[in-house]
Specification:
Elements (H helix, E strand, L loop, with lengths): L4 E11 L4 E14 L9 E18 L2 E17 L6 E19 L2
Antiparallel strand pairs: 1-2, 2-3, 3-4, 4-5
Length: 106
């Protein structure tokens, strides 16, 4: 299980009354937990970066549809032996996050 916490900077290079385009980039914290009979120390706290883009489409004057896609690069630790001495830290291509939602304008 991974429950990411992300902080993003957002820029809006294009916006009209019918469509908005935005770019985003930021950092994330990815605490993960795995369960199983032979897993020892299966909890990890990893950092990562992400970048992506999104669209906003007004549905009504007070309602907006928001869709985004972002790609994440999450930290991987390489250990030397069973004593868990870390010898390398790198950021691997870790996947894509797709989201959609509806926002209410106040």
């Amino acid at each position: 299980q991974v429950a990411p916490v992300q902080l993003s900077a957002l820029g809006v290079p294009y916006e009209t009354a019918r469509l908005g385009v935005y770019l985003l980039a930021g950092m994330g914290w990815y605490p993960s937990h795995a369960t199983g009979r032979h897993l020892v120390g299966a909890n990890q706290q990893r950092l990562g970066t992400h970048a992506g883009a999104g669209l906003t489409v007004p549905i009504a004057s007070w309602l907006v549809l928001d869709m985004s896609v972002r790609h994440a690069w999450i930290e991987t630790m390489i250990y030397q032996d069973d004593a868990r001495r870390r010898v390398e830290r790198r950021y691997d291509d870790s996947g894509t996050i797709v989201s959609a939602g509806v926002s209410v304008r106040l």
